[in-house]
Model the fold of this input.
Amino acid sequence: MSGLAPRSRRALGRELTRLANASVAESLAHSTQRPEPSMEPVRIGFTGAPGAGKSTLISRLAKHRLSACREKGGVAILGIDPTSPLSGGSILGDRIRMDAIANEPDLYIRSLASRSSHDGLADNVLDLLEAVEGYGFREVLLETVGVGQAEHAIRHSVDTLVMVLQPNAGDAIQAMKSGVLELADIYVINKADLPGAKKSASEIRGIVQRSQAAWRPPVIETSQKHEEGLAKLDSAISEHLAWQAEHCNASETLRRRRHYHVQSLIVRRVSELLEHQPQLLDATSLAEAYDCILLALAEDTQ
Amino acid sequence: MSLKGKRILIAKPGLDGHDVGAKVIALALRDAGADVIYTGLRKSSEYIAKVAVDEDVDVVGLSMLSGSHMALVSETMRCLEEYDAADIKLFVGGTIPEKDREALLEAGVCGVFTADMPLQEVILAIERALS
Done:
């Protein structure tokens, strides 16, 4: 594929809107019309605190990834930004950091709002990933909302997870010791030209390399001012993908994805129910309210 | 009415380098419930059309202070057509002389907004255009 044809871009754009807006019932109906997902295309996730530089880093990295897989279908980027809990609106600002690559023909960038999701991802994100892959993109780079400590959902949605940190995150790093810091495959200290980067990198190394897991996560320093760190990150991602292809059980991965998918649909169905029938909460006790919601859920399936 | 669920691209075509107005509108649209994407400064019509299509927006707002609004509007419309996306609506804002308003509306623009209009009025007009 040498660039998506104009009409296909239009079709993919519309398909993603439809999927992102789908209710739980629509999403389930859609799932019966398509083939079971395969593991073949590659998903790389990026997570980290707001302002750590995720979008800019992805933009620079996408160039490297593109040059390796242009012949095989190109690269798509899905960038998620938060939906306002007050107005339901959002400013989707990831794309503006990706200006330098915006004219690449084999690249597709789509901005998503988190909507009702509170896990750093967006409603129906797995459907969106599959739709993009269905258009032949070889790699999808998925950027989460800026996250703190406990947003693990991305772990189940991607093959390789990159955690982007910045120097002197200090207490935040301490706090994250038993959170997402245990889950990523690669750690990046971004803005490594800032003072304190070396110290931060060695602290993170101290934490993550204690891990007994078979894959030892590398800690890589990157900076806007140097290309070297970026090249290291690019090869670390390729190494991890190759390692994973050899060591990971594909059916186990698909099973974890399904676990997350089913769970997120149920959570959202409960939100839908409560939005339409707030009286379900008026029960006399917590346990009774819980039972009322379970009953309402059961009616769904009848 | 609300703009909930609507996707809107705010774009700065051409060479003028001031986007305070564009950002004010972007925030007002967000507060009205829309998902808003902003292009940043100095974008070509081709680029704006491509982003509008990739992001599948309902409407594109062109913010222009340069005086080239007539040319930039027709250029952006032509580029949208190339993507089979002539149905994506356009509104314009910025420094638009009163005498050009009619011609822009005739060209197919769904709204012409200037700095003296109250924000609430702008939002309502966009809601009406999208409903």
User: Anything to note?
Assistant: Residues 111 and 125 of chain B are 7 Å apart (CA to CA). Chain B has a mean pLDDT of 95. The longest strand of chain B covers residues 59-64. Chain B touches chain A at residues 2-5, 7, 26-27, 29-40, 47, 50-51, 53-56, 82-85 (CB under 8 Å).
